[in-house]
Amino acid sequence: MRLAGGRKYGDHLGMSGYDFTLAGTRLTALGSGALWWAAQRLLCVSDLHLGKSERQLRRGGSALPPYETHDTLQRLSTLIDQFAPDTILCLGDSFDDLAAAEALPDPEAKDLRQMVAARDWIWIEGNHDPGATGFGGQACDEIAIGALTFRHIARGDAAPGEVSGHYHPKARLSRGSARPAFLLDQTRLILPAFGTYTGGLRSSDPALTGLMAPQALAILTGPTALPCPMPR
Amino acid sequence: MTSLPAQISGWFETKGWTIHPHQAEMLARAQDPSTLLIAPTGGGKTMAGFLPTLAELATDGHEGLHTLYVSPLKALAADIKRNLTGPVAEMGLPICIDDRTGDTPQSRRKRQRADPPHILLTTPESLALMVSYEDAARTFRGLKRIVIDEIHALAESKRGDQLMLALARLQSLCPDLCRVGLSATVDDPEQIGRYLARHPDPCHIVQADPGPAPDIAMLETAEAPPWAGGGAAYAIPSVLEQIRAHQTTLIFHNTRAQAEIFFHNLWLANEDALPIAIHHGSLDREQRARVEAAMVTKALRAVVCTGSLDLGIDWGNVDLVIQIGAPKNVKRLVQRIGRANHRYNAPSKALLVPANRFEVVECQAALKAVQEGRLDGDPRPPGPRDVLCQHILITACAGPFDADTLFAEITSTGAYSELSRAEFDACLNFCATGGYALRAYDQWQRLLQRPDGLWQLRDPRSAARIRMNIGTIQDADLLKVRMKRSRGGKPLGEVEEAFAATLTPGDTFLIGGQIVRYESLREMTVEVSRDKGRKPKIAVFSGTKFATSTQLSQGILDLLAQDTWPDLPAHTADWLALQREVSELPRAGQMLIETFPHQGREHACLYGFAGRNAQQTLGLLVTKRMEELGLDPLGFVATDYATLIWSLSEVKDPAPLLDGDALRDGLDRWLAGNAVMKRAFRASATIAGLIERNTPGNRKSGRQATFSSDILYDTLRKYDPDHLLLEITRDEAMSGLVDFARIEEMTQRIRGRLSLRRLSRISPLAAPLLLEMGKVPIQGAGAEKLMQQEAAELMRASGLETLAQ
Questions:
Q1: pLDDT of B384-426, one tens digit each?
Q2: pLDDT in tens, B359-368
Q3: How many separate domains does chain B show?
Q4: What structural domains and CATH numbers belong to chain A?
Q5: Which range marks the domain in which residue B516 is found?
Q6: What are the two backbone dihedrals, phi and then psi, of residue A223, each rounded to the nearest 5 degrees?
């Protein structure tokens, strides 16, 4: 199996990614936290948590700045402009809960509906959003495409080629602060959270060290995607 | 004068005591709406505060709560309870006394609310919590007096602002409430008086006899102090001699890290095995309690400590105070000196130990200020609005409120008397909707205005969440340190999260006087093991660094202006004379800038005398400007008196770097994105209730549920730059870690008068700066490149790169 290659995808676009192979499939981890599958022209993002501030306030918490849905969709829309994908796949927890999906404010809801209508769109259901939403596209629990299986939460017994989200992994090098990170080994890839208001779980957390093989990589997001041995 | 009931006067007689004049005056003024007592430690201050209460309760029966006592320390509340219960029992008075702090069990707290004691001893946070309950009016019914202890210390922090807002609430519930403040010696008693009294009531100030002048000097040592650093290891033999010659010595340090290092070195040199302990705020509570108990039984000959011992607990047997490192602030020095010889009428004895050569000058300036009775202090800024936001939420927890009434109540507080209605409305709006330019939350407002005009919580569940987050103390970024064991080892204390993040397994550091080895970070706990080594690899963990006060800095400049220095030790006087010969000494009305080449780099030393934090900010602002001008700055280091910058190119024209408008512009434009500003934002956003430190079920859901406050800060700066919390953050930047007000003060003081000296080599005054800790590298575009190099190196070293081919 091949984990990595040399060329940085997207250099010509002014944004650098990290190319690797999972279950015989060439993929690119982008510095923005999205995954690009060039052969399928498929762009995958995880854990958008749209409507997070609305949900917190609804449940009696404080009123966070209500700009995260706009900001998250803005960054997604920039990626769509750059890659012109045929398919967008959202790996679950796209909405902070189903009520938040329904309450999405108007300009954002309209933008999202247009984005979904313009291409194939797959919603994987997550623990935060277990059900269909009214934004179009196809909703499912998990989906197999080629040699890969996309689901929200990684399974301990998964066959090679699993792509998931859920954990919001992050990692840090000796300098700089912790950054959201992809985690990659020969079996699986875990995506970082793409949503603006999302925190992270350190790669050294037992939940992640238990899932990932000893030789796993962490690919830090940022101006360039930075692969390094996964900090344990 | 109010006469004392027989039980009390009889008790004084059996003890053979007479009432101090200031105690009698407090008794006479028992009905005044507010009284401030200024008395030295050991002057019977607490008794003076409680005498009117005891007298009233001895003669007239009273139903429920009569007197509320508030202190900044939980330990002090417990201590006063002990010290008061004894005499009250001996006097045979039917008075019920209890304390209530964060440590009080839930069952006792409930009982206190339903059936309050006559005297309740508490802290500002516990009082705020009590005020937040729906039954507050019943709990406080009949309250006559409130006694605020150590009010000088509370007045310097947001805890005090929160307390005074709660007091305004109590005053509305109990209009006849009398306020009493107990304070150590301060520079401006009237200012504390205005802070204590209901605005615009007057506040009478009772001054106790300050006692004899302190016996204070610089410690004489065989060895001269080093050129730089804060350890004062050179003074260990002399300090040990002093400990031997006295019964109990308190050894004060300015930072916890310095206290740890000094204690470690003192212990290594302690051949007589004198009982010496360490006490500071990062240590585990039990460990601190053990030290305090040992002090009470006079089992200790010395305690190495920090500001954690500045307040409170009365230990009569301390006969010497040693201050290690320059005191930074004359007022605090005087208060510390007061910890020695509590017996009224005995002079306090204190010794100053400068940690380095420049601190000799600073200590001398401080001695002079103490002798002349010149204390330093800055005018209090208006009450902070983040605390006000929390108070509005607390008020809402207690029940529906009317905005006009609340505004009137808040402006009756001295610190908020200047608050405008527009500012208040902005805070109320923030609490209700978040106060965003984008009106997104009409449906789910946190506070709703009812048809009758009153405001109330929309969701009753919010009350529990708000109560869980009451308080203004920022301890969110502290991690516990524990010995690594299978079932959770002994807790040792706490370190800052930022410090823990720099550790790699195997690193050793000092905590609680012992060297430990870092093992791992597990569930927000730093796990360590014992280390046999004698020298820790990493000596310091960060802690509060006090900046030298404006007044003391001025005193230093006055001292430097002397023709000769007969009062200074020869080693220091010679050093200053040499500086005058090869360059010049900094003067008050201008800024000295020295530039010189050193070790292949250009250097510029800016003598601003603005205090450590402001000099640090100045370093950030000036190097940024230098980068824009193509001078290639590489790094800088700041002390209380100067900033030293190294760069590839020489600074030939410093004027554009130090122009007031340019500095202010830098603060708004790019310092806003700096980590220190983000830290200030996090503190204010937490106090104001935007960030919840504690949420129901937080621990179970794990850390990925919470996200960095930096994201909120960046989002607000991007989409809502005029938001209230960003305004508050800019206010905060005027003091604290950014301390921009001191930079403003400096630019006004020098008014563009710069004295540029080009030297062929480093000057005597600049040389110690090169040895200072805490050099700041400039993170230009190179930082990202360094990270890439490190990642590539790790891939190569781990063999994963070849595997990938």
A1: 999 999 999 999 999 999 999 999 999 999 999 999 999 999 9
A2: 999 999 999 9
A3: 5
A4: 11-229 (3.60.21)
A5: 478-530
A6: -55, -35
